[in-house]
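User: Hi! I'm working on a homework problem where we have to compare a predicted structure to a textbook description. Could you give me the structure for the chain below?
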Amino acid sequence: MSKTLALLAVLTSAVFACDPFPNGTDTKLNWYTCPASNTPIKSLKITNKDHQEVYPVKLSEKLYVHLNVDNSEDHNDIRLDIEVHSWGGWTGCSWHKVPTFGLLSNLNACEHGVPCPIKAGTQDLTIEIDFSKYAKIIKALKDDAPYQITYKLTDRRTTKVTCSVAQARARTKVEA
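Assistant: Happy to help. Predicted structure tokens:
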């Protein structure tokens, strides 16, 4: 009886196990424009301070997100909201929001790495993301795991949104 239960437990865990790195995130960045975004994002890549693409991304270091956007109007007063999601967990194979207790909400985007103002037209933008200010959150995250980051910019005057979601394998510990 105990052998049968052990075998059943192994088979059940194999059948219901989550892919440890969804959407190919074990080897490459996966990104998309949020459905609520008013601004089309044509391309997105992440580099380090030396402008070299990095993968996995290192959340303990400054990241530079390079976007090509087609912006319909000028934006000067921009709010930034960031959501972090982890993969898997007890409730199934899906993304689960990591509580940040408001630390990553309603930020002044122009003071958090966004080059302001953002002018109308098709253009390349480079956004600096520095999670070192939020070391307590980053240190609580599992190292070498997949994370999904939603980066949402909202014009306070027009309420128009520019939003992207990036899914990536991430390092959260400082490498020696």
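For your comparison, note the following. Helices lie at 2-15, 135-140. The first strand starts at residue 30 and ends at 33. Good luck with the assignment!
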